């Protein structure tokens, strides 16, 4: 009677870096907080679909594309970039011009050996589950604050940068003001921890500590 010794498949190689997903309402301060962290940053807004994409969701009032709906964003491409950054430390990412609703180029993002980076954008919560399942997630955070403050900050930024026409930006701002609490609630339900900037910075710092192991569990 012959014997057979089963061989155990090799363990999957752990990712070289992990990601902090930073989400929150438009204008909540994600970009400035990510910059303050000192970590490499992946701008998830660069993964918007182009304005000519037939799959873009539309506003019910006939006001054009609904750029605040998750289906206006290419989650698959964003997730692929996050995966590449975590496993290889580098990814090619699109450069998106919000004013023209189009991709205008591409660039390479290199982590430079950093073991942690931030991926920030209003749709970051959409990929929490996939990042956690792949072992890539360090933490997931949702910035929250006063809706009126967010409204003023968002409108000032969008007008300054000429992102869309002024009437469109005002209408969008008022719509998002009314929806802000439900946006935070949805991101929280998807697994993001709701917090203000000081707590977010503290959690990012903790995620980057040398003894931080595994994904943080949003509470």
Describe what this molecule looks like in 3D.
The structure is a single chain. This protein is of the alpha/beta class and 219 residues long. Helices cover 36% and strands 19% of the residues. The protein contains six helices and seven strands; from the N terminus they run E-H-E-H-E-E-E-H-E-H-H-E-H. It has helices at 30-37, 75-88, 128-133, 147-161, 166-189, 197-207; strands spanning 18-23, 41-43, 90-97, 102-110, 116-120, 137-143, 193-195. The strands form two sheets. Strands 2-5-1-6-7 form a five-stranded parallel β-sheet, with helices on both faces. The model is unreliable at 1-11 and 214-219 (pLDDT under 50).
What attributes does this structure have?
alpha/beta; five-stranded parallel beta sheet; 6 helices; 219 residues; disordered C terminus; two-stranded antiparallel ribbon
Quick recap of the structure?
It contains 6 helices and 7 strands. The protein has helices at 30-37, 75-88, 128-133, 147-161, 166-189, 197-207; strands at 18-23, 41-43, 90-97, 102-110, 116-120, 137-143, 193-195.
Write the element-wise H/E pattern from the N-terminal end onward. Answer: EHEHEEEHEHHEH
Strand order of the largest sheet: 2-5-1-6-7
Distance between the termini: 56 Å
Q: Note the overall shape.
A: globular
Radius of gyration: 19 Å
- Largest sheet descriptor: 5 strands, parallel
Overall structural class, as computed from helix and strand content, comes to alpha/beta
State the helicity in percent bands: 25-40%
Beta-strand fraction estimate: 15-25%
Task: Tell me the number of helical segments per DSSP (H or I, 4 or more residues long).
Answer: 6
The averaged pLDDT comes out at 88
